Amino acid sequence: MKKWLVGAGIVAVVLLAVLPMAVSAARSAQTVSVTLSEFKIKGVPAKLKPGAVTFNVKNAGKFPHDFTVLYGPVKWKSGTIAPGKSKTLSANLKPGAYLIVCAQGAGFHISQGMLAKFTVG
To answer: How many domains does the chain have?
Structure first.
């Protein structure tokens, strides 16, 4: 019986030590809702925290759009999002400056103002 109580006590101590870290990690995850339309990108905050982020991207426009994020030479993209459709992208953000563009139309959408920027850190 004593061994069981000691074992349960150790488990409780470990859970109390790990639980705050798990809750903190869950709290630090960010979700950003972005809306694309002709020729706008809305919903991108000026500043985000480093770490996990999920972008929920909806195309509210009449034409196909995409969500391309540039960070130095690194980029990730949604691919084409049809009108009325949505996509979700997740990333682990590092401190720095980011640029979001719609790369559709061989750069035409960017030239018409479909870009947004944010910083991390």
So the answer is: 1
